[in-house]
Amino acid sequence: CIAISLAKELPGANVIATDISEKALGVARKNARLHNVKINFVQGDLFNTYPLPFTPYHLIISNPPYIPSGEINKLQPEIAYEPRQALDGGKDGLDYYRRIAGQCSAYLKEEGVLVFEIGFGQYEEIEKILQKGAKLQIIDVIRDYADIRRVIVAQKVK
């Protein structure tokens, strides 16, 4: 739904959507057709995605799995129906943030922007991850309706 929203709001943009799940991509393709938007869908695992062009992007947006492995079985029923692969962020829930921070600079143009959703209580640790040589500076934090920090906006710096 993120890629579809972007394609609708930015009709001139070249939108590439990736997911590790072919089933999720199938649903996304169907929804893109329903919304009459052009999106290049590619199956893969973050930046280890072929044929994802190795070219700098203006914007990378991610909604990675961020639930700690040990908490998945305790989730509310309305979330627990999701495939485990879409939820499990590793032991502390931060595995994907480490991977994204470690790789995204190569894929972002100078002053390019990275946006991603985060879990409750994860802001401080993710901020540390981004400060550890990721060449990213947090420029905005978006809070949800419960006033919880939910989205980080970071910009590539020199």
Describe the structure.
- By secondary structure, the chain is of the alpha/beta class.
- It has helices spanning 2-9, 22-34, 77-80, 84-87, 95-103, 123-131; strands spanning 16-19, 40-43, 57-62, 108-117, 136-143, 149-156.
- The longest helix is centred in the first third of the chain and has 13 residues, at 22-34.
- It is globular.
- The termini are far apart.
Helix and strand topology:
Elements: H1 2-9, E1 16-19, H2 22-34, E2 40-43, E3 57-62, H3 77-80, H4 84-87, H5 95-103, E4 108-117, H6 123-131, E5 136-143, E6 149-156
Parallel strand pairs: 1-2, 3-4
Antiparallel strand pairs: 4-6, 5-6
Would you kindly provide a brief summary of this structure?
This protein is of the alpha/beta class and 158 residues long. The protein is 30% helix and 25% strand.
Which tags fit this structure?
158 residues, alpha/beta, four-stranded mixed sheet, two-stranded parallel ribbon, 25% strand
Overall pLDDT score: 90
- Measured on Cα atoms, how large is the radius of gyration? 16 Å
Shape: globular
Query: Care to count the β-strands?
Result: 6
Q: In percent terms, what proportion of residues is strand?
A: 25-35%
Uncertain ranges: none
| Intertermini distance | 32 Å
Number of separate helices: 6
Helix amount, in percent? 25-40%
Element-by-element helix/strand order:
HEHEEHHHEHEE
Describe the main β-sheet briefly.
Answer: 4 strands, mixed
In which order are the strands of the major sheet placed? 3-4-6-5
The computed structural class is: alpha/beta
